[in-house]
Predict the structure of tRNA-splicing ligase RtcB.
Amino acid sequence: MELEQLEENIYQIPKTGEMNKPARIYANDKLLKEIKNDDTLQQVKNMATLPGLEKFSIVMPDGHQGYGFPIGGVAAVNKENGVISPGGIGYDINCGVRVLKTDLTYEEIKGKEQQLANILYNKVPCGLGKGGYIDVDEDELDEILDKGMEWMLENDHATEEDLKHCEENGRLKCDPNKVPSDAKKRGIKQVGSLGSGNHFLEVQRVENVFNEEKAEAYGLEEEQILVMIHSGSRGLGHQTCTEYLREFEKNYPEIVENLPEKELIYAPLGDDLAQDYKNAMFAAANFAWANRQGITQAVRESLDTLFGDTEAELVYDVCHNIAKEETHEVDGEEKELLVHRKGATRAMPSGRPEVPEAYSEAGQPVLLPGSMGTSSYILSGGQKSLELSFGSTAHGAGRLKSRTQSKKDYRAADVQRELKRDQIFVKAASGETIEEEAPGSYKDIDEVIKVSDELGIGEKVVQMRPIVNVKG
DNA sequence: ATGTTC
């Protein structure tokens, strides 16, 4: 495949054939080599054929092959002749990350790691089919789909400060009636549940501060204990995606036929089906925010139980699987766009309306988890992200090996023992998950962060080190 | 990612 280097960390596949625009890869040599190991480049090239695409299709430094779009894919389309593609959002609608800052220091939890792992594991429903922390009936679920975090606030599961520190204040305007009934059936018992796979709950310690000013704005300092939550819309989002994919395929046979790959299926934004999916997707996003809020409440209860009266305030909550309506400058003109981010995190710099008031100077916190054996980072949205990536950066380390390969290469007990040697305590519902998520299955997060920072799309603020990791 | 191959 033809690939030209434009400048450091920026590669481009020129526009040829069916492509509407060029395709871009943001990576350094090491990550690019890994990206070349699967179909990611072909997929980012396929993305460039989307109708209404603006500027270029993009894959982030943590990119790897996915369903239709690669994970790490960003595609912005205009409202006039653009499309919406479920493969550009992902099965786990509003899969995302939130970080809580506590008033605890590492000194205070040292020696109690195992206890902490146990209590979190017992309090937060982990794995598949374990129920939710918050019980809701059908009417309440409909309200959650409509109001997201606002419902949590009204029902004493959230504070006003929580809402202020959440992307979109935890609510996107939508029509919850567009969520399939089978999706609701799955979601009703999953409000406040972690799930499985790469989802986790991690107690971390702030190890390095790179930008004192921004760290202070985010309320972070060295040795402070943070809690990172990575989860999404569970079975509800999955079912929603599945059913709309089926509808899209049924309704657009002529589109399917002309696609470079069937999984790239989309609907023209002007069509009712596109709007129905958008409404359902936004409702699932609201559900995911309520879900992460439910987990937050379980974490707060766990910390209070073990350490007495503690504070655990939301720093930020940001999704990395969603399409958003945003205004961006293209060729000197402000345009209304739909920005697909699939395994890519919004990273808005100061001055943008999306940035919460508390962070208007520092820019939006960007939360990037590493693997369970490596660092995670908090970045700030960089000015260059508007020019290079429609206000986006990577979403984490990114997989290096498939789940199947990982299960062949690792034994759960060995992984767990090695991590414990590094003072990282892992508690999981299933050994298979530990194997799938072994640190060796992931790319080097430090390299991903380096590319983001050097490009100026997301800039380093703090680095965290894992202490306790709880997963499905 | 997922009541993990409705």
Observations:
- The first strand of chain A starts at residue 4 and ends at 7.
